């Protein structure tokens, strides 16, 4: 364990020989053969630090044998000189060298290894023993020299040796002893961190690894590996991966990070949430990383174990067996050792070596008795050896306590073994076995249902893992469940059989031709997965029928299967299927055509061309083959051979072939359209070509009235007036008539394109419709059509469509005088230039748009533009000047524009930009005036607002004063009412005293027997009534001016008033109906008066 440090420039060691001679050894240029260095060291009687420095330098450079030889010679030299007290560093060095040897030595040596034979190799234990001897010798030398111990170096070496031999407690004490003296010792910190990690104390180990990284960022072994392992164990997978990636960046040649990242990538490829492409990419990445890790350290058991699994999957059993034996012999941990035995057993099991496979499976079970794959493998071998009882015992031990394992595969195997009748088993025992088998199968089905519910919340099996899905779709398992329930529950039996029937139908237990047709239907609907399943099932069923019947059907099925592989993007599988088909039927040209197309897709046009020629040599009259060859020639930009070939097809094979007619029309149209001959002869040839193109399309429509390609071709001819002005015909004398004709042609073409669009779902339809709308000056609808074509079909990467969008927005901007539309036009031109940076025509268009934008803004009224737009347009115009200048100065022999026009546009731009400042000043003045007017209007509006607010405040103040005045009047009224009430009560008290005196006087008169005073008494009795009326009026006045108080006080219920019987009442009672009379009190109390007032 050392840490990396870059060597200093000019490092050397001086060795003094004899008297004055000094030999300098350059440490940067050491000879791999140390003999000369040894002679110098012996002759110079060098000190021990020189020996260790040179030996360490040899070790650093990878010459471990040379370093060991120097150390041994040092011991001999110092022993001969009787200076053994100086040897402890040498012994420590030798001990570390032995530990380094042990890292590359096998842990055990298999005596019967078949591939990785290491007989005679020294084991790790031998090296560890030698290391311990050297350490003991070093301690002895130190003791004899008068020192207690060898110091820090001895402690560290002893700790490393103890850690390597798994003496964790002793190693921890050694490392902690060093850290007590020097807390920043890198080796001790790393050793302690590894021990804590082995004890599953991940948090403490992580802190130590991080501390090491802080002290030495370029330390080897890289602490980032330990950091990642701790984070992974703490379930921080993303952070762990980041740590390993950083380690690989810092140390690209170190294998631990490569191995760990490879394992992480392979584990990530098993995630069902990923797509097939993502899974394949992740698996391939992991495979490459593991291979690199193993190549970097072929003695690593972990790397060998991981690589062994990959070779097992590939079927490379010899290499897999060698790697498995390498894993067993070099494994340091029980888990890796068990994996090695298991994989070796799997390889031998596959090869049929059952005895050796059993031995390896059993060895794996010794280390980990509850290992699922080991138990299943051993049970399979026992079943093949007809040891059913032993297999049942093996699986039962796996699934039963203690520590029962949850494995659906093992449970299904055990259930099937128990359900199978065995010799020597009584009927009662067989019945019990069947009951146990049913229970095991029920457990499996419930487990699958629970897993499926957790996955997607419903009962479809699509949410299960691959292994669980295989179990749930096992026809034999469902059939076996049905047999187990046939005597117990017909319902359960029927359910199992229906499930088996559903699976059997899906797997191809029906007529192969029906499955092939269903696959073709799915294929046409782009349901490639279902189509592939159907084709595979059909092939399987056809093979079952025998070669006489099935061979004829399997040919087309295999071709269809290859096509679905191709459409799904699985090029490897498609090629294999085509090769298999051609190996059976070499003249099957359809398969050769598809192979040619696959080659053309990867730009292997020569190979594809050769395949097509081979097919034509065998079937020259095959019109489908000839049509594909025509398409191939057009796609590979060979128009002349394509024209000759398609005309030969029409002439020599079938003059009514629709595809050839459409192809001939297309070729003639493009040949005429691209003609640049400006002479009269060229115009005649161009017009003749357009006419023949239209004739070919018309003939194709006669053969097939529903041919959308021919209809679209004719629509294009019509829209572009290919038979008129475009074909070189005499133009109409009237420009108005020409425009009307153009609009009419575009309208007719649009009608055709609208019908073609219902048959063909392609971007060209929408592009052509956009052309027609543009020709009709319907720029908005043209833009809509182009946008549909660009976004829906070309993903914004089709340059011609982008240029059409640019042209449409440019025309719309000129029509509407819209600077925003002009900027949109510029945007699409820039997008097209980004896709084709070398297209100078696009550069010319960009310059033209930028110049036109400025020209347009200069021409419009100031109120239709802004200063910001003006400044932007002027900047763009300045950029256009540079572009026009570069285009005019371009010395290329052929350019898609006129250099003279480019230079004229540059000169025009210069004259236009001279007025830029004037336009800017005008715009600033206009905007300033507009702003002033706006500010004035805002100020007037603000003044009106303030005036209205002042009026409103005055009105509110007036209302407030009125309310205060009214409140004051009410207050005064209440005070007056209160005074009146108080004075009334005082008068009432005086009246009471008078009444008492009158009552006493009346009683006295009654006592004397006089009765002549009744009239006077009656008169006196009327007085209180008058008083009562006055009191009521006072009460009413009080109520009028005290509504606030009345609102605060509850209304007192008016009590029944007692009435004073007067003489006139008695007289009225005598004459009319008699009312109930009450006697009044002789004396009126205060309560009575209060009642009257209330």
Automatic annotation (TrEMBL):
The lineage of its organism: Eukaryota, Fungi, Dikarya, Basidiomycota, Agaricomycotina. GO terms for molecular function: RNA polymerase II complex binding. Residues 1085-1094 have a biased composition (Acidic residues). The keyword Repeat applies. This is RNA polymerase II-associated protein. Pfam families: TPR_19, TPR_6, TPR_7. One of its GO terms (biological process) is transcription elongation by RNA polymerase II. Residues 940-954 have a biased composition (Basic and acidic residues). One of its GO terms (cellular component) is Cdc73/Paf1 complex. PROSITE patterns: TPR (PS50005). Residues 995-1004, 1051-1060 have a biased composition (Basic residues). Residues 930-954, 980-1094 are annotated as: Disordered. Keywords: Repeat, TPR repeat.
